[in-house]
Amino acid sequence: MTKEQEGTQKDEIQALEVKPDDSWFIEANDYQGNTVVYLRVQVTGLLPRRAGPFSDRETAVLALASLLSDVIMDIDCEWSNDLNAYVEDRPFQHRSNYVQAEDELGQAYLQQIQAQSINTPMTHRRNSKKAVV
After folding, report:
1. How would residue 124 be classed by pLDDT, with cut points 50, 70 and 90?
2. Is 27 helix (H, G, I), strand (E, B) or coil?
3. How far is CA 60 from the centre of its chain?
């Protein structure tokens, strides 16, 4: 692989927020006996998907990164706008972005919110009825 190809590859996989894990891949043999790789994709609320076959894990990761570069824009921008109708309205805690990555910094905040909201009724913006979660 040339240095130019390596630079292009690094640019292509910038959409990944975590390192690839072995659980993402399923290796199998094709009808000719060659080892092929399938990429396992899981999204909350959907059944797991298997994409492939790919010739190797590197190619599977590049395909995933290509997909994620489009998907992450939809999640961060468009879906965040749609969430305005559903997210609980809290005084003095207005945020313009309701989609946040659960990284190390976000984990402490998430734990704080969960501790505060246990047994607390939530108000849904779309209607004024209270829903207990």
Report:
1. very low
2. strand
3. 17
pTM for the model stands at 0.62
User: What pLDDT does residue 125 have?
Assistant: 46
**DSSP state, residue 30:** -
Tell whether the torsion through CA atoms of 11, 13, 16 and 20 is positive or negative.
negative
Nearest to 41 by CA among 74, 73, 67, 7: 67
User: Which long-range contacts link 50-59 to residues 24+ away (Cβ below 8 Å)?
Assistant: 50/26, 52/26, 53/28, 57/20, 57/25
What separation, in Å, do the N-terminal and C-terminal C-alpha atoms of the chain show? 53
Work out the number of other CB atoms within 10 angstroms of the CB of residue 39: 21
Say if residue 29 is exposed, middle or buried (CB neighbours under 10 Å; 0-12, 13-18, 19+): exposed
Instruction: Report the candidate in 36, 44, 48, 41 with the shortest Cα–Cα distance to residue 24.
Output: 41
CA dihedral for 98, 111, 126, 92, sign (positive or negative): negative
